[in-house]
Specification:
This protein has 375 residues and is an alpha/beta fold. It has 14 helices and 13 strands. 38% of the residues lie in helices and 15% in strands. Helix 11 packs across helix 13.
């Protein structure tokens, strides 16, 4: 019986995690939720199970459970199989927001971007779907609240802002521990830093509006804040709309084209990774309208390229960016005098140093070592 158990999903970056973690854990098992073999991304092995195939022999107690993406099913598994284990939440960045927005007043959307109608903040195509989803969340919320207070030992993530958000809503003694999957290719970072040339201030200013078409990017609020300055200042707007929320994408695309005309560039088709980085290198300004943690890699790659960054006034990234000395602006500054003025060379250099630290392999490897330490 493994001393450490990881409760995971069939995600594309987890095979790399398992490979890296193998050198730090003397004995561990992986239980895959929400999928059956053959898996889409994970490899089958003698230490990979689905919940129904897990055999609890009881000959060696489970000391540590690592929950990668928190769910009700995983909470129930811990209570049944490892009620006395140390529990570590390896946070994904999206497994908290629905509870916060439903029960704790965490407003992800601007008034211009939120959907109207009955229980509009709850997922579901029909009113009945949303009622059923709300009822299930109500039950889950009670279990999660008790679990966080009684079982959780650590909260593992790279951004402490999410931990502070969690602590503000739930009673827990769990402490924050830095962890980063490192779910990117070092060759990509080498390509950005060694091949791409940052944008020059010649011709119209190029402005990125978010990295995807998700509603939480608050596109409409950003576009309305830009308003008449787009034409007056001859700005070129770029919105990545190849994936995200379908209805929101259509609304943003229609509004952008009808309002800004030739100044609007809606990128509707999938863009290969290196092509996307080339587009980022042409941007003078990048605006990320998320209050939640999202678009981390796009933001820090933009920092590497010397792009001026604007983030949501209440972004959960604020503590991290401030702590590490990044130079950035907020949405409140969009449209104010001098808002398009580029960063100084000193500010660009500071941002590049901070972004390189975010992608640093040694720091990530240390986080893997710390993941396996006894708490």
């Amino acid at each position: 019986m493994a001393k450490a158990v990881h409760l995971i999903n069939d995600e594309k970056f987890l095979p790399r995690f398992i490979e890296r973690a193998a050198s730090h854990f003397s004995s561990c098992a992986y239980i895959v939720f929400g999928a059956t073999a053959p898996f889409k991304f994970l490899k089958e092995g003698n230490n990979v199970f689905i919940p129904s195939s897990w055999k609890d022999k009881g000959d060696q107690p489970i000391e540590d459970v690592y929950i990668h993406f928190m769910t009700y099913q995983k909470i129930k598994w811990v209570k049944k199989h490892a009620p006395k284990a140390r529990v570590h939440w390896v946070y994904f960045g999206s497994d908290l927001y629905e509870l916060l927005s439903t029960f704790h007043g965490f407003n992800l959307y601007s008034k211009q971007d939120r959907m109207g109608g009955f229980l509009s903040h709850i997922k579901g195509k029909t009113p009945l779907d949303r009622v059923m989803r709300y009822a299930s969340l109500l039950v889950y919320h009670q279990h999660f609240k008790k679990f966080a207070k009684e079982h959780l030992t650590t909260f593992r993530f790279w951004n402490e802002g999410d931990y502070l958000l969690f602590k503000s809503a739930f009673s827990t003694s769990a402490r924050f521990e830095f962890f980063q999957y490192g779910a990117y290719l070092q060759s990509d970072i080498d390509y950005v830093t060694g091949v791409l040339s940052p944008a020059q201030n010649e011709g119209p200013l190029q402005i990125l509006v978010n990295h995807s078409g998700t509603r939480s990017g608050n596109h409409m609020a950003i576009l309305k804040a830009l308003g008449t300055s787009v034409e007056e200042m001859n700005l070129q707007l770029h919105a990545i709309l190849s994936y995200g929320d379908k209805e929101h994408i259509e609304r943003v695309s229609d509004f952008g084209a009808s309002t800004f005309g030739e100044h609007w560039n809606g990128h509707m088709h999938f863009m290969p990774r290196l092509e996307y980085y080339k587009l980022l290198s042409k941007m003078n300004i990048a605006i990320f309208g998320h209050r939640r943690q999202e678009a981390g890699n796009s933001l820090f790659i933009s920092m590497l390229l010397g792009t001026k960054i604007f983030i949501h006034n209440d972004s959960v990234l604020l503590p991290y960016l401030k702590q590490h000395g990044f130079h950035f602006s907020t949405l409140a500054e969009v449209g104010t005098p001098g808002w398009t003025r580029p960063l100084s060379d000193v500010q660009k250099r500071k941002n590049k140093e901070g972004a390189l630290a975010y992608f640093d392999q040694k720091r990530i490897e240390q986080a893997y070592q710390n993941l396996a330490k006894k708490s």
